[in-house]
Amino acid sequence: MKNYTFILAEKNEAAIKIAEALDDNGKAVKKGKAVPYYQIKHEGKDIIIASAVGHLYTMATEERNRSIFPVFNIAWTPKFLVEREAKRTKDWSNRFRCNRVHLWNRL
Per-residue b/e over 46-78, b at no fewer than 16 CB within 10 Å? Predict the structure, then answer.
């Protein structure tokens, strides 16, 4: 599957509901083990629906010197790189790494 639409839901329950609502057959099949996702067809188009485990990204300063203030150089950074408690998000962040991110308010 080369071209597809990717939908990332905040929680697994939401991903299941979205997948079942959009699937042409109404029966979404769960795939993946460590990072589960649903691969469906909607009106002939391939769609992958997955869930996150909370916030996958956070804002972080690009400057490591904490004596510099105010900080203007900030970037979206995978949360597991910034917060030790967020180790669980590493698999999800690596699985969903993409070159472009588009936000749509509808399909």
Answer: ebbbbbbbeebbbebeeeeeeeeeeeeeeeebb
